[in-house]
Amino acid sequence: MSHKNTICLWYDGTALEAATFYAETFPDSAVTAVHHAPGDYPSGKEGDVLTVEFTVLGIPCLGLNGGPAFKHSEAFSFQVVTEDQAETDRLWNAIVGNGGEESQCGWCRDKWGLSWQITPRVLNEAVTGPDRAAARRAFEAMMTMRKIDIAAIEAARRG
User: Could you tell me which of 157, 77, 61, 64 has the C-alpha nearest to residue 117?
Assistant: First the structure.
C-alpha cells in the first residue's frame, strides 16, 4: 500500500465480496490486492483473507475482515455525486438491488451495512445556491424522497 491515508472498512469475513462489488459497480474502482492472514487471529484462521486493498471512485480503501465485533453505521458514508437521473438510478439500483436497503434523502445501505449517498450534482447546487427560497424548496422536496428525483428537485427549485 503506497497511499499516505487510506480508509479502513471493517467487515465480518466479506471484505473481498464487498470490494469486488464496488469495483464492478463504480467507475475508477478496482480490487488491487488481497492479503491472507499469516497466522490465526480472533475471527479467522491462517490463510483466510485478512485484508483487501481496493479503490472506490479513486479513493484508496482497505477492507479488514475483523469479525462480527463492529458494524457499519450512517456515521460514515460515501457521497457519490451523479450527473443525471440515469447514473443516479443505476448506482442506487445496484446497491439496493444487491441486498441493500433504501433510506431517506438519497441515502441507501449496501448489503454489508455501508452507507452511500447517491447525490445528483443538481441537488447539491440547488440546496447550496444563492437563492435561499429556491434552496428551501429543493431541500423540502428532497426531505420527502428516498432515491433523488432530479426532475422533482429542479421543479421545486423553480417554484
Answer: 77
